[in-house]
Amino acid sequence: MFAENHRHIGKIAKLHGFEGEALLLSGSVFPKKIEKTEWVFLLIDGLPVPFFISSILLRSDSSAIIKFADINTAEEMEEFIGFDVLIEESKKRKSKTLSNFENINGFAVIDNKHGSIGIVKSVLNYNDNYLLQVIDGKREILIPYNDNLIIKIDAQSKSLFVDVPNELIDLNNQF
Question: Does residue 157 sit within a domain?
Answer without folding.
Answer: yes
